[in-house]
Amino acid sequence: MADARADQPNLIDTILNPVKGFGLTFSTMFRKVVTEEYPEYKKPTAPRFHGRHVLNRHPDGLEKCVGCELCAWACPADAIYVEGGDNTEEARYSPGERYGAVYQINYARCIFCGLCIEACPTRSLTMSNAYELASDSRQTLIYTKEDLMAPLLPGMEAPPHPMRLGSTDDYYTGARSGPDPATAPAEGGSA
After folding, report:
1. Domains of the chain
2. Do the Cβ atoms of 110 and 127 come closer than 8 Å?
């Protein structure tokens, strides 16, 4: 007979259990609601936030990407496609022998892990704080080189053009041994 009583619920538990369950509902019902008005007021991101990728430029406007395809090899989601092209003396896009002729990132696949950034030997590829990448179409989520390139700043010249910083080592160390492109006289002009 003692076993039968242990299986039956206690009268106090039967009454208190529903009240305990509604306690959480009642405690949150009177809290102040925090509403973020997202499109009108955007919260700043953390400084190390991984957002949209950017292909950077050298101070004279040449592209830092040398078309090595290491970023594509490092991507675990297979979201990056790179085709390298050869620079010529008539058409120079980067200081190296090659440049990224075709560069695409598929943001429908990208997991924003940052492994492509770590693999880049020239620090060409970085991640910005831009996070608004939503789209209705998968085709618009494939960003091309034109979408990813950093804008030309004052004093930069759109490639293709010859190297202006001096020797090739200056491009990779950041030191400037040659004349400043902003103050140098134009080719064929007098000093």
Report:
1. 53-152+160-173 (3.30.70.3270)
2. no
